[in-house]
Amino acid sequence: MFGSPLTGRRLWIAALIVPPLAFVALFVVYPILSAFAYAFFEWKGLARGEFVWFANFHKVLFQEPYATWTINAFLHNVFVFFALMVLQNGIGFVLAYCLWRELPGARFHRIAVFLPVVLSTIIVGFLFKLFLHPLFGVVNISLRAVGLGGLAMPWLGDDSTALMALIIANAWHMVGFPTLVFLAGMQRIPGEILDAVRMETQSEWVKVSKIVWPLVAPSATVVFTLLFVGAFNWFELPYVMAGLDGSPHGATDVLGLYFYRTAFGNQSGGAQDFGTGSALAVLIFLFIAVVAGFLTMYLRKREIQL
Length: 306
Prior knowledge:
By secondary structure, the protein is an all-alpha fold. The protein has helices at about 5-40, 55-60, 65-100, 105-110, 115-120, 120-130, 140-145, 160-175, 175-185, 190-200, 205-215, 215-230, 235-240, 255-265, 275-305; strands at about 40-45, 45-50. The radius of gyration is 24 Å and the shape is globular. The N and C termini lie far apart (about 55 Å).
């Protein structure tokens, strides 16, 4: 039917490759290129105006109040990244080590620890918003029940605790992913190495720091890089729990929310500006791409050195 077997095989391969490539080109490549193009034009609502070169980039980076908003959102993303690195990835590594050592209930916990990951971010956001409600939230009710009512507070309404509350919610939601990645790396460690270490020492700290951690370096590269990309693409959870303005008083504002407000406007004020929003999106994309590339190369070198 298709002539030679080689021709039929090529058609079959093309049928498998072309649809996903077309999907990526339509929904990923085209929007990225469009954002690059839009960033160099002035926009009046949905109407494209004149070519303005780098004026939109200058506005985002140096013109007030945009410059202050950009720095504020960027610093929050940086804090989110480092906090999740310690909290989410740190707990994930500890959980992976416990599961790897086959502690009691390990089989059940391998499933339980990953269950929150499959939940929708929207659902997790609304759940934690209810948990942290100042009047009937389970957190404040529990504190009052054990005599610690003085610690009860509006967690999402206080500038000092709002962002950390979002980070904790994200860590609970996604801790299962680094756990399974680290666990997969630990399961690849040769048994001969572990037997040799057991003959030398019984110290768990020595095993973890000198043997396990260096040998799961490839897993750490994957986890750290994906965490960096995710931290600077943060949008759904802050949007659900804190709103589009990054309440309270911008304490939870991140680049994703800031971009959305700039490009599409919001209810509290500010008209949509596709040009400035696209310029911000381009800067975010370039920053993530460049830093993620350098981070990956650095971690790859670390794997070789170890």
